[in-house]
Amino acid sequence: MEPPADVADISDIGRDPDAFEAFYREHLPWVRRFVARRVDDPHTAADLTADIFLAVIDSAARYDASAGTATAWLAGVARHVVADHVRRRVRESRAHGRLSGRALLDEQSTERIADRIDGERMARELHRSLASLPDSQRAVVELVAVDGLSLTEAAQALGISAGNARVRYHRARTRLQDVLPSPFEVTA
User: Fold this and answer.
1) d(Cα 122, Cα 118) in Å, to the nearest integer?
2) Residue 177, pLDDT above cutoff 90
């Protein structure tokens, strides 16, 4: 599925509730899929989705349209939020991580999130297969092949040139030919 279309003025999101609501409704499905590809716990997925949109509100005033599309900007925000979460989880005890925020979800919400996570199981397996790549190559592959961004948008989200993104993507694909089975192999 394609990333959502971009909205006209991101900078209004932090000041105008209607602008935020429109942005939220337009981008929520993409953010949910982004998060579900990276975590396998419904409570954590719900928390990260909320954290991403809080980060959007906090950083909307710093959005620079000349630096890239709104989708690329959102992908960068989402990546930072998820990376912060991973770092936090490493530092915190496992019990503390399991307890935080779980009482906020009702049974039906938990089931919907669990269904979404199940639907993205293949993408999580791909993420595990990407572990053999250097971080810089893996980041480009995740944004392009998994999250549906163009190479240009991935470059913008990562703060690198489009040429650099193309080189990283090509090198990653070359390395992955040996790691992942080809979907085009003919079996006898």
Assistant:
1) 9
2) no
